[in-house]
Design brief:
The protein has ten helices and twelve strands. By secondary structure, the chain is α/β, with parallel strands linked by helices. Strand 3 and strand 4 form a beta hairpin. 48% of the residues are buried.
């Protein structure tokens, strides 16, 4: 169990598109990896070796440093029974913990509801990126979704509460004929004003932020910087979420160059984020989860890889028990699942570990059942 005295904070980085686990946590000690990857592979002499069997992609040097410090856990062979190769369905399963039915609530939405049942803080959870991930969605749970922290908000260009109130009144009169004024006013009072309040609060985060860390100009780097800014501002935000550019990890073609760039940017962003928090003595209550919806097929397609299963996940933080977790899925042909890696570890076990051992909550109603935990924190 964590011994931190501050409220535990969870940061989630979603690698959208299905990251190639085999070229991320590379099984360099297994000749079948090179047999199956005649073109799309990491040369053994370039692998950042962890042991005689596996190592990290050569573009993940900053994350390898965190691993060597004992602050990163690598969970191998992550997935769920009867894997689905559809981006939308597989991500939906990860987001709702509902592999057999269409889920209506996200696992983090349920978590937020437990953390702040009376909706006392409009910034209990903040998402950075377009739209709202299903993981954060739940009826009656407000979540701020930010595209650009510097310009986030509703009518933020209008100064003064009176002017904003007048503008909102104009909106209500425009839409009242079709929706009914009372409905519009209720909606604006319940959601619009919360959005304004959240925007006003969030807008102060960059103003109060100062750091020697220089993040990359890529999307992941800038969103991780935004997450650091919100965390350091002390708004009481407990869950912070962002997504790598939509489907960027869907490397069907030209994977070697694309994957190298993706992991260069992502690894740097994660390292910069962690360094930033440590510079401000604010890393001790933060846990970062990095996941993707599925892995890629074992055999390459010539210049890329197609949708598969048996992925991987990372946990990073001061209180993480670093190391390798779970057995690497077998590359033996007779043990593959229609050309894919079998999963060895249910992703809901990772969630259970986070919810119970980090957030100090009961995981069963959140992940919809009991799953074997890892001693990750």
């Amino acid at each position: 169990m964590t011994s931190t005295k501050k409220d535990p904070v969870l940061v989630v980085l979603q690698l959208s598109g299905g990251n190639d686990a085999l070229n991320t946590v590379v099984p360099h000690g297994d000749p079948r990896y090179y047999d199956n990857r005649p073109n799309v592979r990491v040369p053994e002499d370039q692998v950042l070796k962890i042991d005689d069997n596996v190592g990290l992609n050569p573009n993940m040097g900053p994350m390898k440093k965190i691993y060597d410090e004992g602050k990163m856990a690598i969970i191998q062979g992550v997935g769920y029974p009867n894997p689905n190769r559809s981006h939308f369905r597989s991500m939906d399963i990860w987001h709702t913990c509902e592999p057999d039915t269409q889920g209506t609530e996200g696992w983090l939405g349920r978590t937020i509801k437990e953390i702040d049942p009376n909706k006392e803080n409009v910034l209990t959870a903040v998402n950075f990126g377009r739209g709202l991930p299903r993981a954060l969605a739940a009826p009656g749970v407000p979540v701020a979704s930010v595209g650009n922290l510097a310009t986030y908000g509703v009518l933020t260009g209008i100064e003064g509460e009176d002017q904003r109130a007048d503008a909102l009144d104009v909106f209500s009169r425009i839409y009242s004929p079709t929706l009914g004024r009372s409905m519009v006013v209720d909606y604006l009072s319940q959601t619009g004003m919360d959005a304004l309040k959240g925007a006003d609060i969030l807008s102060t985060a960059p103003e109060s932020y100062s750091s020697t860390v220089e993040y990359g100009s890529d999307v992941v780097g800038q969103y991780m910087k935004n997450i650091a800014q919100v965390h350091l501002a002390g708004f009481g935000t407990r869950i912070l979420y962002t997504t790598a550019p939509y489907n960027s990890f869907d490397t069907h073609a030209g994977e070697l160059a694309a994957h190298a760039k993706l992991w260069t940017d992502t690894s740097n962003a994660i390292s910069d984020f962690y360094d930033d928090l440590r510079e401000h003595n604010a890393s001790d209550n933060v846990l970062l989860l990095v996941f993707t919806e599925f892995g890629r097929r074992v055999h390459d397609n010539g210049s890329g890889t197609d949708h598969g299963s048996g992925g991987m996940a990372f946990l990073i933080g001061d209180h993480v028990n670093g190391g390798l977790y779970g057995e690497y899925p077998s590359l033996e042909e007779s043990k593959l699942l229609e050309g894919d890696l079998h999963f060895n570890n249910d992703f809901r076990g990772i969630y259970t570990s986070i919810i119970e051992d980090w957030m100090n909550m009961d995981a069963k109603p959140i992940v919809n059942g009991g799953f074997e935990k890892f001693a990750l924190v």
